[in-house]
Design a protein that fits this description.
The protein is an alpha+beta fold and about 220 residues long. It contains 7 helices and 7 strands; from the N terminus they run βαααββαβαβαβαβ. It has a single domain (about 25-225), classed as 3-Layer(aba) Sandwich (Aminopeptidase), CATH 3.40.630. Helix 1 runs antiparallel to helix 3. It starts with about 25 loop residues before the first strand and ends with a strand.
């Protein structure tokens, strides 16, 4: 199975701020009524991805297209997605994708993109996002969209999200976790190393560099055996 283009494999955006007090966030599965808050968080945390996919002057429009695509797909778009909630506010996300979850309804997503972006805008955006696709192995729990609101970073929220995702992967009898992180995101790589991830290989894409301003990602793995 390949992760759909509408789901970025980009990982946590690290903060240089000093660590704050730990936050006891509630980690739960995402719901359809979370879509607006999730898209708002992702468009901020992954601004380079949104800018590359939709154009830096059209990030808000791209966010509306993504939200429309998820709503059109319904509950299937939320499969494997986890959110962190604190005092009634959504402050973080991650998504665990596995081979047996199957794919998304790509035709519904394309229609939603065309309605918001037009035919050319939708074609361009879907091509750009397809450069970030990842083929998920049968024994892999693939992590995507690890994002935390800036004011809550370095307070244990990302660790809590990843711990829950690991529990879910083990419950599905997966042998390892995998994720991509930008070569320039040293803070996130340090976090993942501390959680037991190791560098497995490096992925380079000249086209992604042209569109997203970064073309080198490290694929990191963590054994669950």
């Amino acid at each position: 199975m390949t992760t759909h283009a509408l789901q970025s494999p980009h990982s946590l955006v690290a903060s240089s701020a000093p660590a704050g007090p730990a936050i006891a966030a509630v980690i739960r599965p995402a719901r359809l009524d979370d879509i607006a808050a999730i898209v708002d968080l992702h468009s901020s945390a992954f601004a380079d991805t949104f800018g590359g996919a939709f154009g830096h002057g059209h990030i808000d429009q791209g966010a509306r297209a993504l939200a429309a695509a998820w709503r059109r797909q319904g509950a299937a778009s939320m499969r494997g997605m986890l959110v962190a909630e604190h005092e009634g506010h959504l402050i973080g996300t991650t998504t665990l994708r596995t081979w047996e979850m199957g794919g998304y309804d790509t035709s519904a997503a394309e229609l939603a993109f065309q309605e918001v972006l037009g035919v050319w805008g939708a074609t361009r955006s879907l091509f750009a996002l397809s450069l970030l696709d990842h083929r998920i192995g049968h024994h892999e729990g693939f992590l995507a969209d690890v994002a935390v609101l800036e004011t809550y970073r370095r307070s244990g929220v990302a660790r809590s999200l990843l711990a829950r995702a690991e529990e879910d992967a083990r419950a599905r009898h997966k042998r390892f976790l995998g994720l991509y992180v930008s070569a320039s995101n040293g803070g996130a790589r340090t976090l993942y190393h501390s959680l037991g991830f190791v560098d497995a290989h490096t992925r380079r894409s000249p086209f992604a560099w042209l569109l997203f301003g970064q073309g080198t990602w490290h694929y990191m793995r963590k054994s669950l055996l």
